[in-house]
Amino acid sequence: MQYDHILIRYGEMSLKGKNRKHFVAKLYENVKSKLQSFPDIKIKRNRDRMYILLNGEDPQPIMDQIKDVFGIQSFSLAVKVNSTEEEIKAGALFALTKPENVKTFKVSVRRVNKNFPINSQDMNRVIGGHLLRNTEGYQVDVHQPDMEIMVEIRRDGTYITSEKIKGAGGLPVGTTGKSLLLLSGGIDSPVAGYLTMKRGVEIEAIHFHSPPYTSERSKQKVLELAQKLTRFGNKVRVHIVPFTKLQQSLYRQIPEEYGMTVMRRLMLRISEHVAEREDILSFTTGESLGQVASQTMESMNAINEVTNYPIIRPLVAMDKLDIIELSKKIDTYEISIRPYEDCCTVFVPSQPKTRPTREKINELEAKVDFTQELEETLENIETLEFREEHSEQENEFSDLL
Ligand SMILES: Nc1ncnc2c1ncn2[C@@H]1O[C@H](COP(=O)(O)OP(=O)(O)OP(=O)(O)O)[C@@H](O)[C@H]1O
């Protein structure tokens, strides 16, 4: 006997009533896309479970991939047997004898197929008795067992598992709409993107760069960060905004200490154009209260005035150290800490206003006209698309097609 399936348990989506079908379909699509470099496996789904039939594939690399798919609460290696008492007993024995250092166990039967003649409670006892009779040194502990043997009796067969591996949680990407992530080359915005994706949101990114003040290397860094995020959502488009002319014009016409605020407002105005064009209903930023001058309450208030699009700020209440920890977890940290020039930092005034007011900013903006530069900027936005890279095996395979 050997493990021949991976059983996937859905996350929060099971609470979502009517939308469930849509959520399951999206999760299925995402899992399928994630596992496209394993052509021999088969994926099946029903209302409350998904099953990957391994067809002889090594399960470990598949499980490593599944760990990144949002919407999965947990998953387990499973052995599938016919739903007869004898086969179920044999399967349970197989699941129990695999790991060492297990001294106590508990059996949990879920009888989904009510036509199975023995009820769950009785089946727990039948299997438990069988395991005790056929092994040595184990005891039953229903409260704190070292191992739980989980048995799901279904119409198409019975799945037996012994170890639950925690999934990524969250909701399947693509089930809760799309957001435009303002992506800099720093530590915070990729983490903000990751957390938003975790809530089921598909991400497109927008990046403002100001060559020659910001280098090609800085842009490359942002593109690499976008590529990293594809791990959680398969595809990420990036809109690169040439920001130099607007910034130069801005710093000629706006008093230096207010430049930062006006620039942020311009970023949002441009973002709104892109969002409208791409059918995107919100923005996501890596802002966190109190970190820098642009992130005081007054600044946020003044910046936010120019848009009534919702701005998702997943980091707003997080500590920097926790953000850094997350960026290490999602593997963006090493890229983010490479030296780079951000368009915000090269033009940053020595003394930015930390408490700008809307009135003052509106008064200053009323005296200038950025229309022409804005139009030119919007016309020259470049859009790139990144997709998750799969193994070489897959690339070779696609070359043959
Ligand atoms: N060049 C840029 N292109 C796109 N978005 C940007 C750019 N610069 C800043 N942002 C957005 O504004 C947010 C705040 O930027 P700021 O530089 O004030 O803070 P930060 O904490 O250093 O953020 P990060 O670590 O993401 O750069 C960023 O998280 C990002 O969402």
Automatic annotation (TrEMBL):
Listed A to Z, the keywords are: ATP-binding, Coiled coil, Cytoplasm, Nucleotide-binding, RNA-binding, Thiamine biosynthesis, Transferase, tRNA-binding
Q: Which CDD domains match?
A: PPase_ThiI, THUMP_ThiI
**Coiled coil feature spans:** 361-394
Q: Which GO terms describe its cellular component?
A: cytosol
EC identifiers of the protein: 2.8.1.4
Residues annotated as binding ATP: L182, L183, H207, F208, R264, G286, Q295
Kindly state which reaction or reactions the protein catalyses.
[ThiS sulfur-carrier protein]-C-terminal Gly-Gly-AMP + S-sulfanyl-L-cysteinyl-[cysteine desulfurase] + AH2 = [ThiS sulfur-carrier protein]-C-terminal-Gly-aminoethanethioate + L-cysteinyl-[cysteine desulfurase] + A + AMP + 2 H(+); [ThiI sulfur-carrier protein]-S-sulfanyl-L-cysteine + a uridine in tRNA + 2 reduced [2Fe-2S]-[ferredoxin] + ATP + H(+) = [ThiI sulfur-carrier protein]-L-cysteine + a 4-thiouridine in tRNA + 2 oxidized [2Fe-2S]-[ferredoxin] + AMP + diphosphate
**GO molecular function annotations of the record:** ATP binding; CCA tRNA nucleotidyltransferase activity; tRNA binding; tRNA-uracil-4 sulfurtransferase activity
Q: Which family does it belong to?
A: Belongs to the ThiI family.
Name assigned to this protein: Probable tRNA sulfurtransferase
**Originating species:** Pontibacillus yanchengensis
